[in-house]
Design brief:
This protein is an alpha+beta fold and 354 residues long. It folds into 2 domains: 12-129, Phosphorylase Kinase, domain 1; 135-326, Transferase(Phosphotransferase) domain 1 (Transferase(Phosphotransferase), domain 1, Orthogonal Bundle). 32% of the residues lie in helices and 14% in strands. It has 11 helices and 9 strands. Helix 5 runs antiparallel to helix 11 (312-326) and helix 7 (238-254) packs antiparallel against helix 10. It binds adenosine-5'-diphosphate and magnesium ion. Magnesium ion binds at residues 61, 178-179, 195. Residues 52-329 form the Protein kinase domain.
Length: 354
């Protein structure tokens, strides 16, 4: 990724910016977090024409880099996802597409707010709500597994948010613990879906008609967590997002799946074995060590037809039933929270206390 340089920004096309740009000649007063970040020298420092100053890298992957940043005028912390379009060579830019999905999802609980989207130099920038650590980070720092209570509390919220996402005609198609994160501050008990780079509309916005079933796609989504249908290259529906959410929940609770540490001579062979391990008659093996409701949930997903509307309420009810049976209340005290009765404790380093 190349972040545009300040010289480049002097020729910046104002049309792409809809917020006042700080003049390069008049340095803006620095807020203390920026000073601190600069003193530590973490990450490339970039002051955007749209009024944001990057602080530190948060992550990156398939098509860009994400940085924490601060809005220079308000001091509000944000996250910025950058996509370099220099070497696009006719390939579609993904960030405008992801932004369009966020617009459709605007206002849903459990979806980060988007504050600004535009192009600076040759780089697309999506400025959004800064979230806390991802569920994968939290699992890691909670010694590899999350307690059943934490997983059930997350499951309840995640199913509801997925229901809202689906109700707006969107499929995620890339549900994984790295794409789910906790909120910050007063929202630190909320879990968020983000990264809609693989999202798509599954119904016509005007007619409401469901997309037709097709086969022969390249598998879409992370092999560890995607549904078996996605694995086999079938067109995905709402049931596939739900199935993949179940794999994520089981992974968070157990810290392993039958396909973890799989040995195979090459990647295609490994993928073939993984696909077979997701067969319907192997679901009990996948759910071993979890309450029976996880198996009921997964079997229900497998029974749904491609375009069927799932019964989200019933699925939430399954997990609420387990909570009730165990005598737990949904108090938002997760394993990583102070006061949690998690026996093993957590190893959360201070920089992850958000
Ligand atoms: N809004 C955000 N707040 C905090 N961290 C974020 C945010 N968005 C992304 N990240 C971090 O950056 C990583 C990569 O972002 P993501 O949108 O998933 O990009 P990619 O499409 O490359 O996977 C995430 O796994 C997460 O650690
Ligand atoms: Mg991602």
């Amino acid at each position: 990724m190349s972040i545009p340089q300040n010289e480049e920004l002097e020729n910046h096309d104002e049309a792409s910016s809809n917020s006042p740009s700080p003049s390069p000649e008049q340095p803006q007063p620095l807020s203390s977090p920026i000073k601190m970040a600069m003193q530590r020298g973490r990450g490339p420092s970039y002051r955007s024409a749209s009024g944001y100053q990057t602080l530190a890298p948060l992550g990156g992957g398939s098509f860009g880099q994400v940085y924490s940043a601060v809005h220079l005028h308000s001091g509000a912390p944000v996250a910025i996802k950058f996509e370099d379009t220099t070497h696009q060579n006719g390939k579609t830019e993904l960030l405008p597409y992801e932004h369009a999905i966020y617009q459709v999802l605007r206002g849903c609980t459990g979806i980060p707010n988007v504050y600004w989207f535009g192009k600076e130099g040759r780089t697309n920038m999506l400025v959004m709500e800064l979230l806390g650590p991802t569920l994968e980070t939290l699992r890691y720092f909670c010694r590899g597994t999350l307690s059943l209570k934490s997983v059930l509390m997350l499951a309840d919220q995640l199913i509801s948010t997925l229901e809202s996402i689906h109700s707006r005609g969107i499929l995620c198609r890339d549900i994984k613990p790295e794409n789910l994160a906790m909120g910050r501050g007063p929202k630190s008990h909320l879990v968020y879906f983000f990264d809609f780079g693989l999202g798509r509309l599954y119904k016509d916005v005007i007619t409401g008609e469901h997309i037709p079933y097709r086969e022969g796609y390249e598998p879409i989504g992370a092999p560890r967590y995607c549904s078996q249908a996605a694995f086999l290259g079938y067109e995905q529906g709402r049931k596939d997002d739900l199935e993949s959410l179940a794999f994520v929940l089981i992974w968070l609770h157990k810290g392993h799946m039958p396909w973890t540490s799989l040995l195979a001579p090459n990647i295609p062979a490994k993928l073939k074995i993984m696909g077979e391990m997701k067969d319907t008659d192997k679901l009990a093996e996948i759910c071993k060590g979890c309450p029976d409701e996880f198996l009921t949930y997964l079997r229900y997903c497998r029974e749904l037809e491609f375009a069927d509307a799932p019964d989200y309420e019933m699925l939430r009810g399954l997990f609420r039933g387990v909570m009730q049976r165990e005598g737990w209340v949904c108090d938002g005290v997760y394993d990583w929270c102070p006061g949690s009765d998690s026996e093993k404790g957590t190893l959360l380093p201070e920089r992850f206390v958000w």
